[in-house]
Design goal:
With about 475 residues, the chain is of the alpha+beta class. The protein is built from 14 helices and 19 strands. Strands 18-11-12-4-5-3-19 form a 7-stranded mixed sheet, sandwiched between helices. Helix 5 packs parallel to helix 12. It is globular.
């Protein structure tokens, strides 16, 4: 498999958090809950937002509307729904030729909530992605979620971003990423403010306990807005917005501003202030956590195994002039936070849709890279002309985030002031299909799933099936 080793670096994020307090819900039944998301104003400043639906009435109305409008077979939960990308493109072309828009099934990839398999059928030239699926509706935050589980539903526009990053007959994107960084001047000002607060506290000019809010405000003002930059994907795409939001929400949990919906050892609750230098920043970043990628002998089927995402951490030190350098150290509270976050990621993704979306973006990017690496495009004689056409299927339709406002959490613990701010975050699912992770399915399990799927009896115009 060495010749088939796929080396991809999908995302790099270095972010300083700038959002408001949010509380996520576990969508188990229709009722009262508070969905959360983000909004980007006309100046490109991204902020968190709580979408009120105190009684759950709006959700019930949207759910009922979806029940009435979606086809019955589309609403039916499926353990392995199949979507032929080649047939989907053909059906989209037909709708355009007839002057019709895409339908909801197309926009939402037939309700897939995850991609677990990829198949290629040489005889029919079908390239198929498959995974669990269910009916879907739009929640109060505007996110498409499953009618049964509340899981995030895959979006066609995100799949198009991934496919175009690894499109046929063009160079592959090496890095898909975004960074959210404070300015050097902002960090210098922040460091000076921390030093001033420390000096005033030690001289009893400032009583800290009970005054944490004012201190946090001063630190937030000194840090200033951070700059957002995005690589490899359109900055004004939904794909890019999900990357940024997932980064925010993870960091908010870490610094104690957002309450996680599952049990996680939050860094802010367990950190020892004496272990945190005044000029230290916490960095937490996502990496892929696929236990292995299983491929059949004929290289016509692949299965993704594992939760897909893990969180790791490191520290940075900020010098007086705002320069950032890595210390190479990870404190115990940070280590426990990243470990428990990783262990609970699957459960977290089930209850907080943005983390499911993040995992799906990784899955879709890896799937797109796999399709190109295995030359399914050439074997299927598919140039993806329509799906790769921005003029007909635009993906750059969202407000691009350009800045974020800082969020600082000040805590008074053990007689000392700790002022953790969001450090850096990197999503680097590089080498997700490296030689070490790609294994030949000697037991034939992937082949068995592939061979049980029939594509020769599909109806004319049918592009998805259970």
């Amino acid at each position: 498999m060495a010749s088939r080793m796929i080396r991809t670096r999908l995302c790099t994020i270095a972010a300083f958090v700038a959002v408001a307090t949010v509380n996520q819900f576990a969508f188990a039944q229709l009722g009262a809950f508070t969905p959360a998301g983000v909004e980007i104003d006309t100046e490109g400043v991204l902020r968190a937002r709580i979408f009120q639906d105190a009684t759950g009435e709006l959700t019930r109305q949207r759910y009922a509307a979806a029940e009435r409008s979606l086809a019955t077979d589309l609403q039916k939960p499926s353990e392995l729904r199949k979507v032929s990308l080649t047939r989907l493109e053909a059906e989209i072309a037909k709708r355009f030729a007839d002057g019709q828009p895409l339908d909801e099934a197309m926009h939402n990839l037939a309700g897939l909530t995850q991609i677990t398999h990829v198949f290629f059928y040489p005889e029919s030239k079908d390239i198929v992605v498959a995974g669990p699926a269910e009916g879907f509706f739009r929640d109060a935050s505007g996110r498409m979620i499953g009618m049964k589980t509340g899981k995030a539903v895959l979006q066609l526009e995100d799949m198009l971003v991934a496919l175009r990053a690894f499109a046929p007959n063009s160079p592959s994107v090496q890095v898909i990423g975004c960074s959210i960084d404070p300015t050097k001047d902002g960090l210098a000002s922040f460091t000076a403010t921390v030093a001033d607060i420390s000096a005033r506290t030690n001289s009893n000019q400032l009583m800290v306990s009970g005054n944490e809010g004012a201190i946090a405000d001063a630190l937030r003002t000194s840090l200033g807005k951070q700059v957002v930059s995005i690589q490899g994907v359109p900055a004004n795409s939904h794909f890019a917005q999900v990357l940024v939001e997932a980064d925010y929400r993870m960091k908010l949990i870490g610094i104690g501003i957002e309450t996680p919906p599952v049990k996680i050892s939050v860094w802010a609750e367990h950190v020892k202030p004496r272990s945190v230098s005044k000029n230290a920043l916490q960095r937490w970043f996502f990496t892929p956590d696929y236990q292995r990628i299983s491929v059949n002998h004929g290289e016509t089927a692949m299965q993704l195994i594992g939760d897909g995402v893990q969180l790791v951490g490191a520290n940075e030190r900020v010098e007086a002039d705002g320069t950032r350098t890595s210390t190479g150290a990870v404190d115990r509270a940070s280590s426990n936070f990243t470990r428990t976050f990783t262990e609970q990621y699957s459960q977290l993704a089930d209850k907080s849709p943005v983390f499911a979306q993040l995992r799906n973006l990784m899955d879709m990017s890896i799937v797109a890279a796999f399709i190109k690496e295995m030359d399914y495009y050439g074997k299927a004689e598919w140039d993806m002309a329509l799906l790769n056409d921005e003029s007909r299927l635009p993906i750059g339709t969202w407000q691009a985030p350009t800045h974020v406002e800082p969020m600082v959490n000040a805590m008074y613990k053990d007689g000392q002031l700790a002022t953790p701010i969001g450090g850096g975050v990197s999503i680097q699912p590089r080498l997700a299909m490296s030689y070490d992770n790609m294994h030949v399915d000697e037991e034939g399990k992937v082949d068995a799933v592939r061979n049980a799927i029939k594509v020769d009896n599909l109806a004319n115009g049918q592009w998805w099936w259970d």
